[in-house]
Amino acid sequence: MLVAPDLTIRHAGGFLLQLLPGALDEEIDRLEKNVGAMQSVTQMLERGLSLEDMMNLALDGFAPQVLDEQEVRYFCDCSRERMERALLSLGKEELEALAEQDDVAEVCCQFCDKKHRIPLKGLLRQLEESKRKNGK
Ligand SMILES: [Zn+2]
Question: In this structure, are 10 and 46 located in the same domain?
Fold first, then answer.
């Protein structure tokens, strides 16, 4: 991360290279040499290098191809349904114990801090119904 004198962030970045099974020692050596010769990502960004420029430096000698590009953004796809599934995975006894303490479970997503309020009685009914359907 490169911080400007006014304390704003000028550049921040990083990259990830992952070896696939079957990578040869000489390929690994080459990658290590390439990466070792590179400046830090923030220095390269400051010099105006593009992501593709950096990829070509890291993968010099490998003839890389860009297969897909995606915009990256902060996004969490948590949902009430997902939280319900997580609660259901606790099992009947644990859910009943929770329902005795409170009618509603407040589940906080660890990624985005969104709070989901889930009525426990409905969830227990759902559990009973799915057990009946599955013949358990
Ligand atoms: Zn979330």
Answer: yes
